Amino acid sequence: MISLADLAEVEDIIRSVNEAVVLPRFRSLRDSDIAMKGPMDPVTVADREAEELLRDRLTAFLPGSVVVGEEAVSDDPLALRALTGPAPVWIVDPIDGTRNFVAGSSRFSTLVALSVEGVLQASWSYAPVLGRVGTALAGQGAWVDGAPARVAAASEPPALPVTTSHPVWWPAGYGRSYDALNAAGLDVRYFDACGIEYLDLAVGRRSAMILTWEHCWDHAAGLLLVAEAGGHVAALDGSAVRLAGGNALPFVASSDAAGNALIRQLITGSAQSVA
């Protein structure tokens, strides 16, 4: 469905949308450009305009396709039903790291993935200010900043940092798992921008990511990128991660299967010890 040439054309679309409506607002937002969807969950005029432009251009690029975007789902949760429908689906996060964008930090990105009946086909992760881009094509490989991407070599226990979201986003009781991971000698750190973190995992700067939520627009692009870079992804119960949700959480994206299993075992064991 998507060729290497198509991969480059979609990347051009994503870059052009950023140049048109995202970058002109970077560090130039007015108070009236920002609204709150919920506690600590801002949305800006750039998020909304970028998603609208991406919807128009991506569906024109692939006639018959549909878009599941973060802002559209925020307005109408039933839009998620498209993930399990017959049409090809573009999964879009127009600005991943909106809080960073609002604060004037360069650590934000645009995430796009293409899936068909829940199976990822291609993905794009573009951090315009940092000048980083990751692309992946199912069965063909992954590339970051123009070079083939490869996750870090396996080690036991994982030697590179294992990252997870800030505690403000943790579900009740997850702090016990964090303590168990540290006690086992893992270097656990917080991350601030999911899309950029997936880029770092795909190029061997991280051992693993532990994800405590499953919004498809945050993860779809990174999951394919890491998988095509040789990594491993599994829900807490070891099953494959489903884009439509309903996964056992947290799920783990890692450089290798053994490290993934160890992390999931430590998390599960910490939960059982207090059950």
Topology, pairings included?
Layout: H1 4-22, E1 34-38, E2 41-44, H2 45-61, E3 66-69, H3 70-75, E4 89-96, H4 98-103, E5 109-116, E6 119-127, E7 132-137, E8 141-144, E9 147-148, E10 162-165, H5 174-183, E11 188-191, H6 194-202, E12 208-211, H7 216-228, E13 232-234, E14 251-254, H8 257-272
Parallel strand pairs: 3-4, 10-11, 10-12
Antiparallel strand pairs: 1-2, 4-5, 5-6, 6-7, 7-8, 8-9, 12-14, 13-14
Helix pairs in contact: 1-2, 5-8, 6-7
Enzyme class: hydrolase
InterPro entries: Inositol_monophosphatase-like, Inositol_monophosphatase_CS
EC number: 3.1.3.25
Task: Name its key features.
EC 3.1.3.25, inositol-phosphate phosphatase, 5-stranded mixed sheet, magnesium, 275 residues, single chain, Fructose-1,6-Bisphosphatase, Chain A, domain 1, 7-stranded mixed sheet, globular, 35% helix, alpha+beta, 25% strand, D-Maltodextrin-Binding Protein, domain 2
